[in-house]
From TrEMBL:
The organism's taxonomic lineage, starting at the top: Bacteria, Bacillati, Bacillota, Bacilli, Lactobacillales
Single GO MF annotation: RNA-DNA hybrid ribonuclease activity
Domain RNase H type-1: 6-124
Protein name in UniProt: RNase H type-1 domain-containing protein
Domain of life the protein comes from: Bacteria
One Pfam family it belongs to: RVT_3
Length: 135
């Protein structure tokens, strides 16, 4: 079983955004993969969706679809979108997540606090404040 923690950061003044994910083995808590990068989106909510899309694509690209995945997010909008397989505000992103998740045998989601999501949060914040040339 794998745990996916995602987060996003957005600066409303500069309109810069970043996303991050951390993928861990459930038993050992060993980090299998992590990534953070800047992206172009309209707001933080959209960035939250993109962070999960990025993590799911990583798992698919690395043939990890047979694993049970636990998706942990501090974004209520993302959590509800996964549960309903729909988002009024982000229908394209929600549909892509639904399509990606259909490639996995079993998954479940859990809404967590910001405090429980520190690692992904730190990665997203660091990527947001990195100079674009450093990326």
């Amino acid at each position: 079983m794998l745990i996916i923690k995602t987060d996003a950061a957005f600066d409303p003044v500069t309109k810069n955004a970043s996303i991050a994910y951390v993928i861990q083995d459930f038993t050992s808590k060993r980090i299998i993969a992590s990534n953070a990068k800047r992206i172009n989106v309209q707001d933080n909510h959209q960035a939250e969706f993109e962070a999960l899309i990025d993590a799911l694509k990583y798992l698919i690209d690395h043939d990890l679809t047979e694993s049970i995945i636990e998706i942990l997010t501090d974004s209520k909008g993302l959590f509800l979108s996964i549960e309903k397989s729909y988002s009024k505000s982000y229908p394209a992103e929600s549909q892509l997540i639904t399509d990606l998740l259909s490639q996995f045998n079993l998954y479940y989601t859990k809404l967590i606090s910001d405090k429980e999501n520190k690692h992904a949060h730190r990665l997203a914040i660091t990527a947001l404040h990195k100079k674009k040339e450093d990326q």
